[in-house]
Specification:
The chain has 445 residues and is of the alpha/beta class. The chain is built from 15 helices and 16 strands. The chain has helices at 15-24, 38-45, 58-67, 85-93, 106-135, 162-168, 185-193, 213-224, 246-251, 264-289, 306-323, 335-344, 346-363, 387-402, 433-441; strands spanning 6-10, 28-31, 49-53, 76-81, 98-101, 154-158, 178-182, 202-207, 234-238, 256-259, 328-333, 369-374, 377-382, 405-406, 416-417, 421-426. The relative contact order is 0.10.
């Protein structure tokens, strides 16, 4: 099964073909008319995404959706944009989350719509999390104050020197974005990971078709597997031959790809849309995180209590039934904690348990809810997420934990390598948290 998200497609002659494409890969897509009533329809139906063909009235429709209190949470992806500087600026200023040029293929569409679908899922999860938290006596502010200008952000430019970048992209300094260059991808990886160093809102990577290609791809992989920056926007400028096609680049974790030499207007407009999306996700994440506190957390502190997870899953399941979507749970069992208790005592085991809880909470996406459901068992609830995408999250979490060492009390002389067992379970009608966890425990690996 693909992603069950609901997508409205408002375009001309190719509408039927794109609707068929989206439905074939598992989305719930339908064609609608691109007229003045589209904003009201989006506010009533509340789809996960609106695909809107660029045209005379499309920018006004996008603005109306952005300004509507009922529809503003619906992201807009502009289709068949002519690529002119004026059109790209219009896309950005109308509030569109992304824009695809006329020569974009289906693989590019499927890759580029994913972050926008996720954005709408985060908004819906914020409202659900706030409602569940209220049951436990916690009030959450669900309003968002986001700077829509996408100015003041910092971008790490990888693979070129300062003078090369200035020669290729002379207009970019006028976008209001600060650019920091690092020609070596290995050093750039260290800069991204340095918690005490400079922070970046995105990265721009120059990939050539020669011997440095593997170094550039290493940076892609490192970024997507970093526990703090796995969703950082990554804009790639690629020489001919560096990738067989755009689909290969998107499979490597690229957010947007452009040919070299880059068009400054294209790069500037897309960077601003990417960074604005990043700021929206960050703002939503901060609001969602406020639901975790003394009244809702497990005694470990960094994860929710089983009671909260039980109440929230019931709300999530009800919402999924109304929206015609489904969710997935990942169960994590940590046998290493029991082994540490036997070797080094309960104090060391308790410390490892707290560390694991903090790591699991930090490694999943901000919209995912992690709760402790057993002594050394944790469940992550992934809203509106198909098994395939949930498995990507599962593998990233497992990979990071298995490659790490955990330092415990003074009487534990070595770093502890942790082994994690995990299993997936998709939600279904009539499920409870207990039944969801039970199915996942049957497929632990």
């Amino acid at each position: 099964m693909g992603n069950p998200a609901h997508i409205l497609v408002a375009e001309g002659k190719s509408s039927g073909r794109r609707v068929s494409l989206l439905n074939e890969v598992g989305y719930n897509a339908e064609s609608v008319r691109a007229d003045a009533g589209l904003s009201d329809l989006a506010g009533k139906v509340k789809p996960n995404l609106l695909l809107l063909e660029a045209g005379a009235d499309s920018f006004a429709v996008s603005r109306a959706i952005t300004e509507s209190p009922d529809a503003r949470q619906v992201p807009v992806l502009m289709l068949d944009v002519d690529g002119s500087p004026e059109a790209l600026v219009e896309c950005f200023e109308s509030g569109a989350g992304d824009a695809l040029e006329r020569d974009s293929d289906d693989a590019e569409l499927l890759a580029r719509l994913k972050p926008l679908v996720r954005l709408s899922i985060m908004e819906a999860e914020l409202m659900r999390r706030a409602a569940t938290a209220k049951q436990f006596g916690v009030d959450i502010d669900t309003s968002l104050a986001v700077d829509m200008s996408a100015e003041g952000y910092r971008l790490l430019v990888v693979g070129v020197e300062d003078d090369e970048f200035e020669a290729m992209c002379p207009l970019l300094p006028g976008t209001g974005i600060t650019f920091v260059t690092e020609p070596d991808p290995y050093r750039a990886k260290t800069m991204i990971e340095d918690e005490k160093g400079e922070s970046f809102d995105g990265a721009m990577l120059f990939v050539d078709a020669g011997e440095d290609r593997d170094k550039s791809l290493y940076f892609c992989h490192a970024l997507r597997n970093d526990r703090r920056h796995f969703d950082l926007p990554l804009f790639v400028v690629s020489e001919p031959g560096a990738f067989k096609n755009p689909a290969e680049a998107y499979a490597e974790g690229v957010s947007v790809i452009a040919p070299s030499p880059p068009d400054c207007n294209f790069v500037g407009a897309h960077l601003r849309m990417l960074l604005r999306g990043r700021e929206l996700r960050r703002s939503l994440g901060k609001r969602i995180a406020t639901a975790l506190g003394p009244k809702t957390a497990d005694k470990l502190g960094d994860v929710y209590s089983a009671e909260f997870a039980k109440a929230h899953f019931a709300r999530l399941l009800d919402d999924m039934a109304k929206r015609g979507t489904s969710s997935t749970a990942i169960l994590f069992f940590i046998p290493t904690i029991g082994e540490v208790a036997a070797l080094y005592g309960d104090e060391a085991a308790a410390l490892l348990r707290r560390q694991i809880a903090a790591w699991l909470s930090g490694l999943v996406r901000v919209e995912d809810l992690v709760a402790r459901v057993g002594t050394d068992e944790f469940v992550a609830l992934l809203p509106e997420t198909p098994r395939l995408d949930a498995d990507i999250v599962r593998k990233r979490v497992i990979g990071v934990v298995h490659q790490s060492e955990f330092r415990l009390t003074d009487n534990v002389p070595v770093g502890i390598e942790v082994y994690v067992q995990s299993g997936l379970s998709a939600s279904g009608s009539g499920d409870t948290l207990a039944s969801l966890v039970a199915r996942a425990s049957e497929v632990l690996e």
